[in-house]
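Running this now, will post back.
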Amino acid sequence: MNQDRRDRLRDAAVAVLAESGGRGLTHRAVDAAADVPTGTAKNYFPTRDALLRAVAERCLEQYRALAASLAGAGPGPDGLAALLAGLLRDVAGPGRPRVLAYLELQTEGTRRPWLAALLDPIAAADFAAHAHLLRAAGLPAGAERARALTLALHGAIPHLLAGAPATLAAAGLDDLDRFARGLLAAVRPEGDR
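Update: finished.
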């Protein structure tokens, strides 16, 4: 199979799922979004489950690429704050379709145990990744701090996607650099500030 066309179809499926939700994700809609002949998506992904799996895999690839591109933000708490702010900026900007699609996949996962199992290691990996980032920045990285950081970041995502100004301001998400610095300060023990 043509890998470029496969990736084009997967990108189109991410866009369709983000824009139209789970009910809108059809082979025909993906064909139209990818601007390919009708039936092409079905040739690559014969079932709806195969299409959902392709979206999940593409979202994971895109997330890993983003994390790798931001990894050079620099050592120390300031570098980590810049990396976290960059991740959040991506959610509200160019990564918005990927994140919306991922949230749709999580919803689909409530009805499809195989999809929940596929997504589980992806979400669980964030906890270990954030613990690693805390350690690399020279900050305490116990399980509780990594959980607090991860859950705060995950909790910010729906607000960033909705983009409601009053909510963003109330949550401190109207200034992502300040939010990231404040979040890191919140997960540090009193004696380390």
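The radius of gyration is 18 Å. More later if anyone needs it.
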